[in-house]
Structure formats: structure tokens, C-alpha cells
Amino acid sequence: MTSTRPxxxxxxHGTENDFVIVPDPDGTLDLTAADVARLxxxxxxxxxxxxxxxxxxxxxxxxxxxxGEAEWFMDYRNSDGSIAEMCGxxxxxxxxxxxxxxxxxxxxxxxxxxxxxKRAHLAKDGSVTVAMGRVRLPSEQVTVTVGEHSWPxxxxxxxxxxxxxxxEDLAQAGELRSEPLFQxxxxxxSGVNIEFVVDRGPGHVAMxxxxxxxxxxxxxxxxxxxxxxxxxxxxxxxxxVTGVPATYTVDVLGGSLVISELPDGTVExxxxxxxxxxxxxxxxxxxxxx
Length: 290
Ligand SMILES: N[C@@H](CCC[C@H](N)C(=O)O)C(=O)O
What we know:
Bound molecules: the ligand N[C@@H](CCC[C@H](N)C(=O)O)C(=O)O
Helix content: 10-25%
CATH topology of the largest domain: Diaminopimelate Epimerase, Chain A, domain 1
Radius of gyration: 19 Å
Strand content: 35-45%
Distance between the termini: 9 Å
Number of domains: 2
Shape: globular
Number of helices: 5
Order of helices and strands: EEHEEHEEEEEEEEEEHHEEEEH
CATH superfamily of the largest domain: Diaminopimelate Epimerase, Chain A, domain 1
Largest sheet: 18 strands, mixed
CATH architecture of the largest domain: Roll
Structural class: mainly beta
């Protein structure tokens, strides 16, 4: 049955990783995987790499216990409708949405995610810094293959899984219309985000990414964090040993992010977040999305 309740949405992006934002404070919306895929469809829907559903933490059974630490939960979905633990660019855009909606002033705001509570700092220049939490470096050796090229890749976990491959030229990743092969498959039983990286100079790299559940995107925040940590280790830097942060500028197709790994093993990400538009879904298009 078609609902008459107006369903608001916003569109935002962080370094051109774009999202449909769906405010649902009371968590009453039954957002199925098919609904998400329709919203993210770039021709027949709003279009986006994913959906950020904005739910009061206390109203969501998965994260209710975090309500004392963060008022709002970022229910992130990939554009194919699958659920992911974390989205770095999404946290910046989510913080920008909270500010846009009058729900958070400039300064610090806590955001509940499936990978725990992330603390974001909204600056007046529109940039957002997010404490992304602790990086994990599982020891398995991974190989990534595109066409005739294969590379060893570093397994990095930023709450969600990544395989980081240093390549000679970003063009070697090809068109990335389909998921690159990775081996052994058992290392990533729930799939993986794959980053291809080249050097640009000291403390400066560039990457492309094939995201689990979304395909090639123009940026991936958790991916940029994974890349910076992999680059630091490759460059012989381990902040936990030296006591000195390792900072990298990571160029993505849609801009640049600055990533620091800190001596306590956590990672900080700074980058832009933009709210582009807002509107109401047409009831006829929306159908039984309610
Ligand atoms: N674009 C995101 C990552 C989104 C989730 C990812 N596709 C996954 O399935 O883990 C980011 O900015 O981190």
C-alpha cells in the first residue's frame, strides 16, 4: 500500500563518495536491501554509493547499548543493499547532516556505528575530522589480481575489511567494472574492499578503490585509512614504536584526505563533507517504502 507520510531525503558527499541520507529518527522505516538499491540507482533513483539512515541510537536494537555515548546511529548500507560495519566518508557526511539539521553544533559530535562509537569534529571551514578507532593488521598474505597483473596485498581492518595493493600505475587496475580476484578467499569470508595505491611523493599517495557492495567509487574513507597505515609500514614507520604519528595525504579520484596513524594505534581522518540537496520522495515512485 502506498503511504502518504512524506519521506524526506538528502543527498551528500565526501570527496565524491556520495550518499542518500534518510532521516528516520524513530527507526520506524523498513528499509529493505531492494529499497536501498532503488534509492542508489543513478538512473531510476536518487543515485549514490550508499545510504546513510539517521536513527536515534536508543531506537535501534542493534546499537541501543551505545545510546549513552552517542545520540545518533549511522545505519550505513552499500548501494547493492548490503550492510557494512563502517563507512569513513559516511561518518563525515553524517556529522555534516547533523549540523545541517540543527542536531549538532560546530565542534565535537559522537556517532554510533556498527563498528562502535566514532567521534567527529566539525570545523567551520566544512572539514570534518573523525577518530576512526584502532587499526588491525591481520597477518595473512593476500594476493589481488586484475587481468594479467597480480600483486601482494596488505590485509588491513578499519572496522571493515581491506586489501591494499601497491601498484606501479593506477591504470593497471583496469576499468574495475567487476570485483578484482583475491586469494585466499577464506581471508575475507564476507568480501573485501580493495585499494590500489601509487606513490606521489614523501607522505603522499594516490589510490583507487573497488568497494564491496558498491563497485568502484571515487573515494573510500576507511580505504584511505587502510592505505595510509599500509604505506607507513611499507615505509618502515610504526607510530606505536616510534611514538611519532605517521601522516599521509591520500589522493582519491574525488579529492584528498589527510590520514594520521597515532602512537596509540588509532587512526584519524580529515576531509570535506558536503550536503548537496534535500527533497521529498514522490509517493508514486516510493511505493510501499515506509
Ligand atoms: N565508502 C566507505 C566504505 C563503505 C563500506 C564498504 N563498501 C564495505 O562494504 O565495507 C568509506 O568511506 O569508508
